[in-house]
Amino acid sequence: MNVLLVNLGGLGLIALIVWYFWLSSSSAATAAVTAGGVQETRIIVKGGYSPDTIRVEAGRPVRLIFDRQEASPCSERVVLDAFGLSAELPTGNDVPIEFTPTEPGEYEFACQMGMLRGKVIVS
Amino acid sequence: MRDPVCEMKVGAESLTVDGYPDVGFCSEHCRSAFTADPGRYMVNAAAGQGVTAAVSTTKEPALVGAPAAGSVGGDTVHLAISGMTCSSCVATIEKVLAGTPGVLDARVNFASEEATIEVSTASLDTLTAAVASAGYTAREVSDDVDAGDIEAEERDKLYRTLIRKFWFATIVGLPVMYFSYPELFPGIPAKGTTALNLIWAAMALVTLPVMLWSGSQFYTGAWAAFKHRSANMYTLVATGISAAWLYSTTALLFPGLFPEERLRDVFFDVTAVVTALVVLGMALEIRARAKTSEALKKLIGMQAKTARVVRGGEEIDIPIDAVVVGDIIVVRPGEKIPVDGQVVSGASAVDESMVTGEPIPTEKTEGDTVIGSTINKTGSFRFEATRVGKDTMLSQIIQMVRDAQGSKAPIQRTVDKVAGYFVPAVMIVAVLTFMTWYTFGPSPALLYAVITTVTVLVIACPCALGLATPTSLMVGIGKGAENGILIKSGDALETAHRITTVVLDKTGTVTMGKPSLTDVIALGSVDEDTLLVLAASAEKVSEHPLGEAIVAGAKDRGLTLSEPETFLATPGHGIEGTVNGRMVVLGNLKYMSEKGVAAGAAESILERLADEGKTAMVIGVDGGLGGVIAVADTIKADSVAAIRRMHELGLEVAMLTGDNVRTARAIGAKVGIDRILAEVLPEDKASEVTKLQGEGKVVAMVGDGINDAPALAQSDVGLAMGTGTDVAMESGDITLVKGSLTGVVTAIELSQATMRNIHQNLVGAFAYNTLGIPIAAGVFFPFFGLLLSPLLAGAAMAFSSVTVVTNANRLRRWQPSLVKESAR
């Protein structure tokens, strides 16, 4: 009986892990448009990117302002591979990254080791 | 007092201007600049106090390649503010700053403790003073070095904290480990006794702070990741050590829940010791990772701080930021050249090794270019600044290295995909391990299930995987910069190790790119030196490059030339003139017969010289045959050795040239080229590269980056040869600062060494995880009765990522083979 319960619980846990980490998607933030027509979002870097999904429109300049609030070396650099951009993120300094996406699609950004991830959804 | 124009400190005896009692000037130049437009330099002119210069700083966003769109008007100054305790301080500081003359707008961020100020004329001093007047302190955050220092400080702080946490966990962990094994160690009360239960209860209490303080970053890190629906190393460690502690505490407090006596065991040692080991590993990793960017830090540290410029006829020291294009700068022996420029007077030898990798100092005289931050060795000279600030070669190199270090090698994209699934996958394996042991394991099954699950969680090391590529890339690209090889991206670095064919553009790459005198053969009564004097003197007024080569060749031999009395050039054929009363004709055979010079005896010599790839001319003196003079584009000193090394590396070497086949073969044979692509028009260079790629070759194109840019772009890896300050950084994937083929070899070798290092790291990290996790899950148990201790698993995990970074740091000792050879 116990064995059955433990195994059912285990399977349930596995299903939960699969769903939570791989299948579900987190909520996306839509970038605000500044007076200059730039789609701007502030991203807090602390154990991850908050927000980690940013919606923008194609053809308009995008400015992501990264604000790293930790000293852990894991997040010391952010890489936007699709745009060929990267930047060092000194702790406590705002680092803006600007680009203009032309094609709709999903573009990942991540730390240099690919552990912390986020994405820009261009529509 | 400060000179408001150049910002130099000046004394009370300095020059003054009527009406501005608090202002002094270092020189007449500054004073006249001030009187022309005082408003430009005075911030608080009306008040006549707190005089400062209107120098403002713009913080460059730390990125490259992005379009510089959407920037705001005026200059932006960033100040780090300390002393803010609440958000109302923000309003106070903003108000004070906005009320300061010369400030357009000010915003203060409480969280980042930073003020962003748009300024028109206000200086840094004014701004910091304004912040101070409100009771806070401000410090500029714009300089690269400063930013690096702050980062280093933060890193040091983190390191020290981790080390403290490690010691605490160790001091608690050792006795805890001792009392965890009553069967193993002497002097411990037997299991089941009240005495031991009391000791264990004490252990539960003392390991709690270990878990929650020494291991706090595991929980905060795991939680932050969890909120983002991701998981990382912290998730695994936090789950592992918590599971061990919770099981032990439950067994201790509620023994009734565990029917079997043997299940009532504790693993407080796992919690304490694994925490200690992982924290130590993190600390060591921070230290090791700081070293990976050392090359870049060295480059940044190389920048000069001040420059001695001539202003108003006087030499004054000014901060490097104040140097403008056109300034005349004085450099004395042993000093650093502050910015890029061109020598206007004086001569010296300059050590350019920090930029070009060339160890031998370069002679500089009037008209030569000098590179900022290189070191003047012997003489004094003056030069005119041509590039300052972020336009200097060093600034561009720093920017390029920084970008390249942040780029990804294609191999990492694969790793990234794996990394995205890794941690949740390990969690699933851990659950499966628990289920398997609980269902099929020997008694006490629950105990085994808990231990193996904790071991699986603790042994998996996603960090080693993640660190494998970027750390090696950082060191490799930094190492390149140290050797005068600027690699634009991880892509270029990775592709360079797969090259099978190197295509060299002949002119300017294999050869110097300009002709020089090679042969003087006397065939008549006039001796060689006299022939050369006559030919060179006649050519003195000619502007033809061949003529220039003959003149330079005569000067090199120490001959004294005369002014020609008459001179007549027939373009494409030759020249004639009178030198020291003698009739001199110089040209091809046809020209000789036109001038009535019988040159038949020279014919065979001309042919032989042409076979050697030289351009030969006949010289006639006073109507008779004098001899033959030949010039050729000379091969660069190190081309032969470099091409030999390319062959040793197993590369096919091709040469691309517009020359005729005969000349091309002659040069090709001298340097050892495998394949000659001759008579190629400049516009067809790229299609020759395409043809080679069509044969399945991975092609590296080496050129000067000016007229072969399309071929460089077409090739798999384009290597642009730079000379002096004219580094054509845009055109190549890799730029060789020093224009020699040795750099090509070094670049390929460096790429191979770096990729080897990356492979070692990746293979190590993959093997570690794919072997370690099953062993931790207990695959050996059914066969050998072997189980891995969670303590060992913790140690293995902690040191696997340190090993990866340490292996990457091994690359720092790498040396190009041609340098090693010449050192012998």
Write the layout of secondary structure elements.
The complex is a heterodimer of chains A (123) and B (824).
Chain A: H1 2-23, E1 29-30, E2 32-33, E3 39-45, E4 49-50, E5 53-56, E6 62-68, E7 77-80, E8 85-88, E9 94-99, E10 105-111, E11 117-122
Parallel strand pairs in A: 1-5, 3-6, 5-11
Antiparallel strand pairs in A: 2-3, 3-4, 6-9, 7-8, 7-10, 10-11
Chain B: E1 15-17, E2 20-25, H1 28-36, H2 38-41, E3 75-82, H3 87-98, E4 103-109, E5 114-119, H4 124-133, E6 137-140, H5 144-179, H6 194-214, H7 216-227, H8 233-253, H9 268-292, H10 294-301, E7 306-311, E8 314-319, E9 328-331, E10 340-346, E11 348-351, H11 353-356, E12 362-364, E13 369-370, E14 375-376, E15 381-387, H12 393-406, H13 410-440, H14 445-459, H15 462-482, E16 485-487, H16 490-496, E17 501-505, H17 506-510, E18 511-522, H18 528-539, H19 545-556, E19 566-570, E20 574-579, E21 582-587, H20 589-594, H21 603-611, E22 615-621, E23 624-635, H22 639-648, E24 652-656, H23 661-671, E25 675-677, H24 685-694, E26 699-703, H25 709-714, E27 717-721, E28 734-736, H26 742-777, H27 781-784, H28 790-810, H29 817-823
Helix content of chain A: 10-25%
* Distance between the ends of chain B: 57 Å
Low-confidence stretches of chain A: none
State the share of residues found in helices of chain B, binned by percent. Answer: 40-55%
Structural class of chain A: alpha/beta
Can you count the helices of chain B?
Answer: 29
Which outline of chain B best applies? flat
CATH class of chain A: Mainly Beta
Radius of gyration of chain B: 37 Å
Please give the largest β-sheet of chain A. 6 strands, mixed
CATH architecture of chain A: Sandwich
* Total domains of chain A: 1
What does the radius of gyration of chain A come to?
18 Å
| Helix-and-strand structural type of chain B | alpha+beta
Name the largest protein-protein interface in this structure: A-B, 61 and 71 residues
**What does the largest sheet of chain B look like?**
7 strands, mixed
Strand order of the largest sheet of chain A: 1-5-11-10-7-8
Biggest sheet strand order of chain B reads: 16-28-27-26-17-24-25
Strand content of chain B: 15-25%
Order of helices and strands of chain A: HEEEEEEEEEEE
